[in-house]
Design brief:
heterodimer; A: 412 residues; mainly alpha; 4-stranded mixed beta sheet; 4 strands; B: 314 residues; alpha/beta; 4-stranded antiparallel beta sheet; 14 strands; 37% helix
């Protein structure tokens, strides 16, 4: 027991002197996390700008422009009125999601049921927001088409009365009444076509009303695991340092201490990985407003998982015939694991089949559960089975490391 | 204290150690002497448990190093040929760690660490990292780490390899101090003068085989009082062999050829300096040309030459 603690103290004392490595392991998640946050923002919904060139300046063109910011669309889009020159220049520069040109005479053409062309240019470098703008435009046009078909005559008669009224006070009460009756009559006529509806609409209440985590927060577990993976791999390389220093041979000669030596190194790794992962978790939690009750279970999960990853990276290091070969081998595995395991992109942003594979990688398994812990409604959300799996992975990794040391690595 | 009996270590068909046996006693230094590749380090590794012997037994304090490994290893202190210290851990923490690894605790540990750090001459630099030490200081710390738990049996594998004369002298003092404290020391070296100076008993190895064993005095007696004369030049083989044989039969009965080729001739004889002119005359008559002459008085190096026909450092 004492040699275990002494071994841990010895490694912590040695590793703290390697400040450049520690600094690199701490900086990696902050640099990558900063870049990710810069790219995707605070995890808020994407927001785009629709440039509107309104050459008609009519009531109808105003209604069309208003359709793009109605209701929840307003959270995604804002409409900015610009001149044709400015609009063209900005859309060419990619400074907006779309440019809509409403030509002069649009309202007249609509009321007179004459052809008119609305021009929409979208930003090819974006996919989601231009698609939304295109869909909204088509819905507005469809609505106009059906309004024209159903109530064209009534609209025209009111417009004609408004334009010929000398006092400019609008249509007479008689005309409005007549139009209202006509509209009512038309609705009664089409009612059999609309009711009952040809489609049956069933409104299902969602079973789980858990809030969807913002995208920025979904990056956090992957970034933390990236720091854990780099530090676990770096610390595992210490077995080669010890071998080159000859200290592995010496500990092999000591009476029955190899197991405690490996366990002590594992404890030291937990401390370092816990510090690095915990710091990243703390900063990320503060930034994203993650509840403090989730900190402890998340930190424990990171530390125990870090130990398991450290143990198996140690085994991997010992498979190399030389230190350089071991480093190449572990790097060959490290980066694909980071890619597939949700460290560069959250599983929610990956194609389903890649995400499914990624969740089965060791780090992907950890990221998946850490995401659950961070985004769930209650703390301690990781299930007992997952804890057991990670603990078993750590124990088996340390056991294999110990066996590999005894079977030859420490004796060379 | 340390008994090696018919030890064999094979790597496939190659035998690194072929059935060597010796016994080292408490309070003595037993030297394993031989050139590089003779099997000295392999023997040490088999004793310390780094290698598993193919056959044979090793007992330390009556405990078999294979079947009672844990108990036997507690009695061993190993100072390997290559440095085995943490270069990024202060010298005193190195000693503390290795002391604890061998079971020392509390005040006993601190007392022993203080003694050892002073003995190896690093008390004033105990907080420094060994990576800033000279080679000799690292060697001394390496020695200290091997003896910090005060083992009754110490294995020293070429501890002076690559060490400057001053540090070597210091290491000798440390080894002698351990012997005076009652330790049994197994000391491997390929320096004959070291072995002669330090060791109470010796085993000479070559190609994994034990070719001579005994105290330094006993080994010298094997050589007798004969000198070794080494000649370099041109030596027609048959004519020279005949000339030397004739000289031995007529005037120098203990003259023998140790080794001979076209460019060198090694001879052994008593009182060599008094018979040089006779030997030169005989060789000249045989058509030989001597360009260099070395006459050595009897020592372990000449014994090795006598036993193997080659230089120890070849």
């Amino acid at each position: 027991m004492r040699i275990l603690l002494q071994s841990m103290r010895k490694d912590l004392s040695r590793w703290r002197r390697d400040s450049s490595a520690l600094l690199t392991w701490i900086l990696i998640p902050f640099v990558i996390g900063g870049l990710m946050t810069f790219v995707v923002g605070d995890g808020a919904k994407p927001h785009g700008v629709l440039l509107l060139v309104d050459q008609d300046e009519s009531l109808l063109s105003g209604l069309v422009a208003g359709a793009y910011t109605r209701g929840e669309l307003g959270e995604l889009l804002s409409v900015e009125k610009v001149s044709l020159e400015e609009g063209t220049e900005r859309i060419n520069a990619g400074d907006a999601s779309g440019l809509l040109l409403i030509p002069e005479g649009f309202e007249d053409a609509f009321f007179d049921a004459e052809p008119v062309t609305l021009t929409l240019r979208t930003n090819p470098s974006q996919t989601i927001l231009p698609g939304i703008i295109r869909d909204v435009t088509e819905i507005v046009l469809d609505a106009g088409f059906y309004a024209q078909k159903l109530f064209g005559e009534e609209i025209r008669s009111i417009r004609q009365a408004s334009s010929t009224n000398e006092k400019g006070t609008g249509p007479s009460a008689e005309l409005v009444s007549a139009v209202a009756v006509a509209v009512r009559q038309r609705i009664v006529e089409i009612d059999p076509y609309l009711n009952p509806l040809a489609l049956e609409v069933e409104v299902a209440e969602p079973v789980d009303t858990a809030p969807v985590a913002p995208m920025g927060l979904l990056f956090l577990p992957g970034i933390i695991l990236m720091a854990v993976m780099f530090s676990a791999n770096g610390l595992a390389a210490d077995y080669w340092v010890e071998r080159e220093q000859g200290t592995l041979r010496r500990i092999h000669c000591a009476p029955g201490q190899l197991g405690a030596f490996v366990a002590g190194k594992g404890l030291a790794a937990i401390v370092v990985i816990g510090l690095i992962g915990g710091l990243t978790l703390l900063v990320g939690s503060l930034y994203h407003g993650v509840g403090t009750v989730r900190f402890l279970p998340s930190l424990l999960w990171i530390s125990v998982s870090g130990l398991a990853l450290f143990a198996w990276f140690s085994v991997l290091q010992m498979l190399g015939s030389t230190q350089r070969a071991a480093n190449i081998l572990s790097s060959l595995l490290l980066f694909p694991l980071l890619m597939a395991g949700g460290s560069f992109f959250p599983f929610a942003a990956l194609p389903d089949w890649i995400a499914a594979v990624g969740r089965h990688t060791p780090n992907g398994f950890v990221v998946d559960r850490l995401t659950t812990e961070i985004t769930s409604t209650a703390a301690w959300a990781i299930d007992a089975q997952s804890w057991l799996i990670v603990l078993l992975m750590a124990a088996s990794g340390l056991a294999v490391t110990s066996w590999r040391l005894k079977s030859g690595f420490a004796r060379a | 204290m340390l008994v090696v009996n018919n030890l064999v270590k094979q790597y496939g068909d190659v035998a690194a150690v072929e059935g060597i046996s010796f016994e080292a006693r408490k309070g003595s230094i037993f030297g394993l002497l031989g050139p590089n590749g003779a099997g000295k380090s392999t023997t040490i590794k088999c004793i310390s448990g780094l290698l598993q012997a193919t056959s044979g037994t090793v007992t330390v304090g009556g405990l078999d190093v294979m079947s009672q490994a844990k108990a036997a290893r507690k009695l061993l202190g190993v100072v390997p040929q290559e440095l085995a210290i943490y270069e990024d851990l202060p010298a005193i923490d190195n000693l503390r760690f290795w002391g604890k690894a061998y079971g020392l605790r509390g005040e006993a540990l601190e007392a022993r660490v203080s003694t050892v750090i002073a003995t190896i001459g690093l008390a004033d630099r105990d907080k420094e990292l060994p990576k800033n030490f000279s080679g000799g200081m690292k060697r001394r710390l390496n020695f200290g780490c091997g003896v910090v738990h005060k083992p009754p049996v110490i294995l020293l594998d070429e501890p002076t390899a690559g060490v400057d004369p001053q540090s070597r002298k210091r290491l000798f003092e440390l080894v002698e101090a351990e012997r005076a404290d009652g330790a049994c020391i197994l000391y491997t070296t390929h320096y004959m003068e070291e072995a002669e100076y330090l060791c109470d008993a010796l085993a000479i190895l070559d190609h994994g085989k034990l070719i001579a064993t005994g105290s330094v005095a006993e080994l010298r007696a094997q050589l007798g009082a004969r000198d070794v004369l080494q000649l370099h030049g041109q030596f027609p083989a048959d004519a020279c062999r005949l000339a030397i044989r004739n000289l031995a039969e007529s005037r120098l009965p203990d003259l023998e050829i140790l080794a001979q080729d076209d460019h060198s001739l090694s001879l052994t004889l008593s009182s060599g300096s008094r018979h040089l002119s006779d030997i030169f005359a005989a060789l000249s008559g045989a058509g030989a040309t001597v360009s260099e002459t070395v006459l050595r008085s009897p020592n372990l190096e000449t014994l090795f030459l006598l036993l193997t026909g080659k230089e120890l450092r070849e």
